[in-house]
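Progress narrative, Year 2. Work on Peptidase S15 from Stenotrophobium rhamnosiphilum advanced from sequence curation to structure prediction during this period.
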Amino acid sequence: MERSIKAMRHIGVAAIVAAIVFSAGCSRSSSPDGSSSEGSGSNGWTTNGTRGTLAKKNVPIKATSDWVDYNPEATYPKSVTSTDTITMADGTKLAATIVLPADASGKAVDHPVPTVLTITGYNKAAGTYVPAIGGANTYLVSHGYAHVIVDERGTGASDGQWEAFGATEQGDYKPTIRWVATQPFCNGNIGLYGASLLAITAVLSAAQQDPAVKAMFPIVPMGDAYRDIVFNGGQVNVGFIPLWLGLVTALGVLDPNIVLDPATGLQQELDRVLSAVTNFQVPTILNAVVGDPDTAFDGDFWASRSPIEQAGKIQIPTFIVGGLQDIFQRGEPMLYEALKNHTPTKLLIGPWTHVDAAMGANLPLDGVPVLDHITLQWFDQYVKGMNVGANKLPNVTQYVYGEGHYVTASDWPHPQAKAQRLFLRGDKSLSLTAPTADEATNFALQQPVSGICSASTSQWTAGLLGLLPLSCFKDNTLAEALDVHYETPAMTEDYYFNGPIAADIWIATTGTDAGLSVRVDDVFGSTVTPISNGLLTASMRAVDETRSRKLDGQRIQPWHPFTQEAVLPVTSGTPVLMPVEIFPTSAMIKAGHKLRISVGASDFPHGLPPLPNLVNGLIGGLTIYSDAAHPSSVVLPVVPVTALK
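Result:
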C-alpha cells in the first residue's frame, strides 16, 4: 500500500485530475478490465428492465426545438362549480366536483368542451384550499376546459375502502372516464392531470386505454412502488410512507358528509378510521417494519401498484414533470424512457423536492415557462387538436446541480454519456487507477440512524422538513460524520455526469446482515453539497443481470429482485460485493471542487431495515475493501461539458 501511495504522489494531483477530465471528454472510455469502447455513445445504453420486461438496447429519439412560453389570453373569466356522484358496478358511489368555464356574468358554457380529469385520494374538498391535492386548475378552466375532480373510493366524500392503487380502485378508473366522456359538458376529449398521488392515478388511468383520453400531464408520478419509494434497497422508507398514509387517512376523515348528512357521515367517518387501523394503512406499515414476507419482499402486491409495469399499454402523449430531490427521483425519467419510443413524451426535471415540484417552484427560469403554461400548451395540442408547437418542445429538460441552470437534451438517458469507473482507494482517494493487492481497508460503525438531519431527510419527507432553517438539510457534513469519505483531488476542469450511478462496494460485517448507504457529493472547501444517494441491505444484494442497465457494457443500474427466493446469506467477516443503485441525477463538479463518494451503514429515515435484518446487523462494524481482489468502485455516466446547452 505504501508503494502505491508514493506512486500516486509522484503522479501529482493535477495529473490525476487531468486524466479524469480527459477521459470524460473523449469518445473513448476505459472498462474495469482495461478494454475500451468507442463511438458517440448514442448506442451505449441499455434500458433498465421491470418485473415483466428484460433490459434491451436503448433506442434514442431525435432532438427537438427550444422552449417557448405559451400563454394565450384567457377566454372565460369565471367558473361554475357543481357536484355529482358516479356509481360503480358494485354500487359504490364516487363523489365528483365539476368546474365549468363561465363568462363574465357567471353563465357556464352551454356547449360541450374538452375536459380535464383528476382522480384524487387527498379529498377534493381539501383541494379547494390546496389545489395541488385535488383542486380545480383555474388557469385551464379559464382557457376553455371543464375540470372534473373525483375522490377515489374510501377517500373524501366517496364510499368504500381505500387500498392505495389496489385492483378495485384501478377498476374504478375506466368507468369514471366513461362517465366523464358521456356528460353533456364534455365533448368526448379528456386530458388526465395531477400531481403526486393524482399523477399516479393519471398514469394508471391512461393504461386503461379509453379512446376518450387524448393526453396526460402527470407531475411527480411514481414508477415502481417498491424500488422508487417504499423499500429503497430493501429498506422501509420510514420518512415518507407513514407521513403519506397518515395524510390520506387524516384528509379522508375530513368528510363533508359529516356536516351535510350527519347520520351517514358519522358512520362513514367511523368506517374510514376502522379501515385504516385494521384493513390497510396501519397493517401495511407494521407488516413492512416487522418484515412480513408478503409486504417486505417484492411481489404481486407491489407489481400491481407500479405504473411502470403498465407503461406498454399507454399510447397517449405524455408530459412528465419530476425533481432531482423528489421522492420519485428514480421513477420519473424511467417512465419517460418506457414511453418515449411509442408515444410523444417529454420530460422536465427541476431542482425540486416533492412539494416544490408539484408547484413548479421558481419557474419561469432559463426559458422554461411556469407549469400551467406548459400544461395548457400540451392539452391544447393533444386534447383540443390545435397546432401550438407542443410537439416541438425539448424532449428532455433537466436542472444541472453545480451548473445552476436548466439544460435541454434530445433524450434520457443522455445520448453522449460514457461509462467511467472510479475506484475507492485505500488512502480514501477516488482514482481511475485500479487498486493494488496490499491497499488498506477502512472501517465504518454499523448503526441504523445516520442521516437524521440531512438533505435525504428533507427529500424523503417530501421537502417538508427541509423548510426548517437548518444547514444540515443542505450540507451533508453532519449526516456523513460516521461515514468513510473517498474524494478526487480538486478538479482542474468541469466534470459533468447525467443519469443513474452504480456503486460496487466490497464490504464485510461483524454481524449477519448489514445496511449500506452510498452518498454522492460535491465538496468545495468545508461545504459538502449532496447530489444523490443509494441504499442496499446486504442480504438483498442479488442482481438480475438480464434486467440491469448497462452503459458501454458496464452495469450502471443494478436491478435487484428483492424477493424472498433471492435472499443471499451474509457470513460475519466474509467479504461480499454490494451493487448499490444510486438514483439518477444531473450534476456538474466545477473546476476547483471535489467529487466525494461517502460510504456508511445507514440513511435514516430514508431507510430502516425490516426488523429481522435490523436485528442481524444492529451493532457492529463494516469493513470497506479497496484492494485488487476486492476493488470497490463507482460507475458514472460522464457527459462532455460541450453537451450543455
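Residues 1-42, 258-262 have pLDDT under 50 and may be disordered. The domain at 2-31+40-58+418-643 is CATH 2.60.120.260 (Jelly Rolls).
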